[in-house]
Amino acid sequence: MQLTAHTDYSLRLLIFMAVKRDDEPATVQDVALHYGISAHHVAKVARTLVQLDYLKSHRGRGGGLELTRKPAEINIGAVVRQTENLRLLECFGPDSTCPIEPGCTLKGVLGEALQAFIDVLDRYVLADLVDNRQELRQLLGRR
User: Fold this and answer.
1) Looking at the domain that runs over 5-85+126-139, which CATH code has it been given?
2) CA neighbor of 10 nearest in space, from 54, 40, 68
3) pLDDT of 143 higher than 60
């Protein structure tokens, strides 16, 4: 299973927000700089996370991003389900044109594997991913 860059950046942005000091503003440019990724992509991801109510965005001077929930309240499985297209094959959607779909067992096997993947992610919250907050701050240059 490979996650899209959008989901990857969503998780990275949430991690960044969880490890930053409360008195530090977090801007799209700051996140992009520390991760070495495009500010344009980070802005798209931030918009998605604002729409999903994981982040709040403050405009203007002194503005920036902030988490709307505590890291212990942000479930990783939920974030992945909301940011990722989990339709692995055409037959996972309503308009399948696969001629062998009625007799194919691959869909069931992949569905089971996908569920196992999501079940593991559901066991974790953002707080679990930032237990090593100090190390992450150093790696991101945020001492």
Assistant:
1) 1.10.10.10
2) 54
3) no
